[in-house]
Amino acid sequence: RKEVEQDPGPFNVPEGATVAFNCTYSNSASQSFFWYRQDCRKEPKLLMSVYSSGNEDGRFTAQLNRASQYISLLIRDSKLSDSATYLCVVNMDTGGFKTIFGAGTRLFVKA
Amino acid sequence: DAGVTQSPTHLIKTRGQQVTLRCSPKSGHDTVSWYQQALGQGPQFIFQYYEEEERQRGNFPDRFSGHQFPNYSSELNVNALLLGDSALYLCASSSGGGFYEQYFGPGTRLTVT
Fold first, then answer.
1. With a CB-CB cutoff of 8 Å, which residues 59-88 of chain B face chain A?
2. For residue A111, what is the DSSP state?
3. Collapsing DSSP states into helix, strand and coil, what is residue B98?
4. Cα separation of A37 and A46, whole Å?
5. Tens place of pLDDT for every residue, chain A, 111 residues?
6. Burial class (CB in 10 A: 0-12, 13-18, 19+), B42
7. B45 — contact with chain A (CB < 8 Å)?
8. Among partner residues A91, A93, A104, which is closest to B42 by beta-carbon distance?
9. What is the DSSP letter of B101?
10. Residue B42 and residue A95: Cβ atoms within 8 Å?
């Protein structure tokens, strides 16, 4: 079983749609959590950190459920510019931090 | 404020050769992590350097080694290159040993022929 698993993609949605991405992690030593977006042939860029209390940044909402070992990202009112790959990221403390990326979920937003 | 920088941008090497990739972290960051990203996959953690020591390592063979300098910059060395080492190599920096968010450089695209 992979340490971090994401919804397989791609997701194809119309502009204005709401889309949700899910991610599960298996290691209880996981300490910090993030969502990144990656455009084709570019480096990953931090989208947001994820906290147990949930956090929101404009159209984006991230949530963490430690009991279920589950992370989510909700995008409301999708824009064409949201088309990218979304990566779930977990930092695990195993005597030093190891960072594990999910395989990513590709999002296509269409006009 | 300069972000994370990496050099070179692109590199072509032959099987069996050795390569060194370089990374300068974002100002104020003391932790550097290296990743390998193959096409269509998420980045795979190679190792992390903090206080000039390798603190954590992913599932990569000893052919992959690194170093962190007193100014926090870092190098990734790969010996005895294989065709399968062709990938985008990403460097990311953060502060405090790796708990916090990481910021990525543009990557070095390595092609092994």
1. none
2. -
3. helix
4. 7
5. 789 999 878 999 999 999 999 999 998 888 899 999 999 989 999 999 998 888 999 999 999 999 999 999 999 999 999 999 999 999 988 777 889 999 999 999 999
6. buried
7. yes
8. A104
9. -
10. no
